[in-house]
Specification:
21 strands, signal, D-Maltodextrin-Binding Protein, domain 2, alpha/beta, six-stranded mixed β-sheet, Rossmann fold, transmembrane, 4 domains
Length: 600
């Protein structure tokens, strides 16, 4: 009896002890779970546990799962079988900034738990090489307080894998959890006690404290200019695209290290080495937003693409081809048929009134109206005198009117408009552009005008080959982004200071531009936020307007009628018209004499 009673008491004590242990475990993780739940940025949790920490993992899960969507993964199985189904989960292959990785470890377990953690981190990076790293929390249960020295190497190693928000939480019975984190920009470690309002992941991207970001130094006007010192070293960049980086640099307080060796102006030829350096972490980000529609697909596995924010419109740059035409008033055009009608009327009057035919021939009436003297005796009949006098007066009036109308004739100078794709397609000028632009511009479009344009479009290695040929000889057209075309139209002038190119009105297609970063860059999201603020403020639009305003003004001035030396032009027109009329009169007089001689 006593033996049964003792056994029952021992069973009750063991059960109460297990309950107290479970209660203790729940209390240990309660504050940590509450902080995870209260973090509004966390939408889902991936919990990595091991067999040695199974009891703590269950306690952690029981508190966390009812409040936050949680996926639990057996860490030991994942490390043994690299191809298990856990690694194919979308949340591991495409984590977001709202994803939280929680690693539960037991410091008192046998084996090197730090190496296991490093191996697990490498596995998660291998599974998702491009996406930004999620927040990562190491929860370590230890019977004794663990010092920072035990975790400093792991914190530094996590940063080498691009884990910026990486925190170690040491959970010890009877004590508040201790948090360790590392700021790579100040190179300082920090130790904190977990409090109700303590941030598990302190924000570190508000100030980079002079951290050096590596960007490529490329010369591509008007987007990028390289500034060099007296020794030829690159000291800074400038240009329309680099203004974004200047705002980034001033807002986040970082410095830039310029990677040289890619200063060539052929931007498309530099994309493979640039993206290769991005993939090898030799460059942190591009120094300019690039057009993604035609290029990014070839290098999508080597970079992290930022927010699409800049619309790029591809257009034709065409030479200004001068044309001259004579502006003849409508009165001058009407003067010729009226003149012929007058000759017919007087010829009919001669036949009706029976005037001497030899003095009233068509050619002689024509000569009198032109003001040419015709030798003839004075008319004898009164009616003939009146008709002849009216013909002389009409001749004087028409001579004066003809001179006045000739003075109104203006020589106008203008340029070929190139207002439509049809007009460009019918032009005899060939079109040159980069190879990838040809493919994106025409593609599989079967429209007749597009096919005509495609047949006369040829690739060039450098777009400036086309621009120089167009400026010097006016013998071709080019396809470029609109901002580059406006820059060319403004800057490329001839030796007389006259603009020789312009942007044609019809546009071809639109492309979107974005910044590119190295894979899993921790800076991409922060820079995207700044880009969004720049776009919303309209500052970037003012850069384009300031660059194009002068171009639009000069283009408007070219559309006005040219009035310089207008008096000299009118004098030339009068002299030319007088010379032509004199020649016609002489030819008419000679023809009349010959006709009269043949009649005799």
């Amino acid at each position: 009896m006593w033996i049964c009673t003792a056994c029952l008491i021992m069973v009750i004590l063991s059960m109460s002890n297990e309950r107290s242990v479970d209660s203790l475990k729940n209390d240990l993780f309660a504050s940590l779970v509450n902080r995870i739940v209260s973090d509004l940025k966390t939408n889902n949790v991936v919990l990595f546990g091991s067999k040695s920490a199974r009891s703590y993992s269950d306690a952690f899960c029981n508190r966390l799962m009812p409040k936050v969507p949680t996926i639990s993964i057996d860490l030991s199985k994942m490390m043994i079988d690299k191809d298990n189904r856990s690694l194919s989960l979308p949340i591991l292959r495409h984590p977001t900034f709202s994803t939280l990785y929680v690693f539960l470890v037991n410091r008192d377990e046998t084996g090197d738990y730090l190496k296991n953690l490093e191996s697990t981190l490498n596995t998660t990076v291998r599974v998702s090489p491009i996406s930004a790293r999620p927040n990562c929390l190491i929860v370590c249960y230890s019977e004794e307080t663990s010092s920072l020295d035990n975790w400093s190497n792991l914190l530094i190693y996590a940063w080498s894998l691009k884990f910026l928000d990486f925190t170690v939480a040491i959970v010890t019975p009877g004590e508040s959890p201790i948090l360790y984190d590392y700021n790579p920009f100040t190179k300082n470690f920090r130790k904190r006690l977990l409090a109700p309002r303590t941030d598990l992941f302190p924000y570190k991207l508000d100030n980079l404290h002079g951290y050096a970001l590596k960007i490529p130094a490329i010369e591509l006007q008007p987007y990028l200019y390289i500034k060099r010192n007296s020794e030829g070293e690159v000291v800074d960049l400038d240009g329309m695209s680099f203004k974004y980086c200047q705002i980034f640099r001033e807002s986040l307080n970082f410095t830039t290290t310029f990677v040289t060796g890619m200063e060539h102006t052929v931007l498309h030829a530099n994309f493979p080495p640039i993206f290769q350096r991005l993939g090898n972490a030799e460059i942190d980000m591009l120094s300019f937003p690039f057009n993604v529609r035609s290029i990014v697909y070839d290098f999508c596995d080597r970079l992290q693409l930022g927010r699409l924010f800049l619309n790029t419109n591809y257009v034709f740059i065409v030479p200004i081809l001068p044309i001259a035409k004579i502006d003849i008033p409508l009165d001058v055009i009407c003067f010729v048929p009226v003149f012929a009608l007058i000759v017919v009327v007087y010829e009919a009057a001669q036949r009706l009134l029976r005037f001497p035919k030899k003095y009233w021939e068509v050619c002689k009436i024509f000569q009198i109206l032109l003001g040419v003297t015709v030798p003839r005796p004075s008319p004898k009949k009164m009616v003939e005198k009146i008709v002849y006098f009216s013909l002389i007066m009409l001749s004087m009036k028409y001579s004066i009117d003809a001179l006045t109308k000739i003075m109104d004739i203006r020589l106008l100078k203008g340029e070929v408009a190139f207002k439509s794709l049809e007009e460009i397609a019918e032009s005899a000028l060939p079109i040159y552009t980069l190879d990838f632009i040809i493919e994106q511009t025409y593609g599989n479009n079967d429209e007749e005008v597009i096919q005509k344009l495609k047949k006369k479009t040829f690739p060039v290695a450098d777009i400036f080959q086309c621009i120089y040929r167009m400026v010097d000889n006016k013998s071709c057209m080019c396809i470029t982004p609109h901002s580059a075309g406006a820059y060319v139209a403004k800057m490329f002038i001839n030796e007389d200071g006259i603009v020789t190119t312009k942007v044609a009105r019809p546009s071809l297609y639109d492309d979107m531009a974005a910044f590119a970063f190295e894979r899993a860059s921790p800076f991409a999201r922060r820079f995207d936020e700044l880009v969004q603020r720049i776009v919303e403020s309209g500052i970037s639009d003012s850069w384009d307007i300031a660059q194009q305003y002068t171009v639009k003004q000069s283009d408007f001035a070219r559309r006005k009628p040219i009035k310089e030396n207008i008096f000299l032009m009118q004098l030339y027109a009068v002299l030319s018209a007088g010379y032509v009329l004199g020649c016609l009169s002489l030819m008419a007089e000679l023809a009349c004499k010959r006709y009269c001689a043949c009649s005799k």
